[in-house]
UniProtKB/TrEMBL annotation:
GO cellular component: FANCM-MHF complex
Entry-linked InterPro entries: CENP-S/Mhf1, Histone-fold
GO-annotated biological processes: DNA repair; replication fork processing; resolution of meiotic recombination intermediates
Region named Disordered: 1-28, 123-146
Family classification: Belongs to the TAF9 family. CENP-S/MHF1 subfamily.
Family matches, as PANTHER family: CENTROMERE PROTEIN S (PTHR22980:SF0), CORTISTATIN (PTHR22980)
GO molecular function, one term: chromatin binding
Classification lineage: Eukaryota, Viridiplantae, Streptophyta, Embryophyta, Tracheophyta
Protein name: Centromere protein S
Keywords of this entry: DNA damage, DNA repair, DNA-binding
Length: 146
């Protein structure tokens, strides 16, 4: 059993591991945020260069921050949709459903999903119970003439 201290942090069984896990998660989020910032800087700089413009660092940082927050929210939504459906893993329909606020994005995701389905190798169709029953029926014996 876990006992809570005055600060609300668990003392005893696993309180420290929760704190370590939280720190690890925060470190991963910071790393992802930094990588996204570098990508946004690269994309924004190259796009501005092709247009013959410059872009200020605070604007790029703001765009990267907005993109990161949007991705976090989308991740939470997708996870909740899968959970609501009683699944532990996320599938393509969860991702499409998470874009319900943006019809254009939802359409693009549906097209992409259809494109992926078209590229999947055709697998043998599953046989229905009816087909299995027909296969398992005993055929009448054939009379052979001498």
């Amino acid at each position: 059993m876990e006992t809570l201290g005055d600060d609300g942090i668990g003392i005893g069984s696993g309180g420290e591991s929760d704190k370590e896990r939280q720190e690890e998660t925060e470190e991963e989020a910071a790393l992802l945020r930094d990588r996204l910032l570098l990508s946004v800087i690269s994309i924004a700089s190259s796009h501005a260069k092709t247009l013959g413009m410059t872009i200020s660092e605070p604007v790029v940082a703001c765009i990267a921050d907005l993109a990161f927050k949007q991705a976090e929210q989308m991740g939470r939504d997708v996870e909740l949709f899968a959970q609501h459906a009683g699944r532990k893993s996320v599938n393509m329909e969860d991702v499409i459903l998470s874009a319900h606020r943006n019809e254009h994005l939802m359409g693009l995701l549906r097209d992409f999903a259809q494109e992926l389905k078209g590229k999947e190798p055709c697998t043998e169709r599953k046989r229905t119970k009816k087909a299995l029953k027909n296969e398992n029926k005993v055929q009448e014996p054939i009379e052979m003439l001498d």
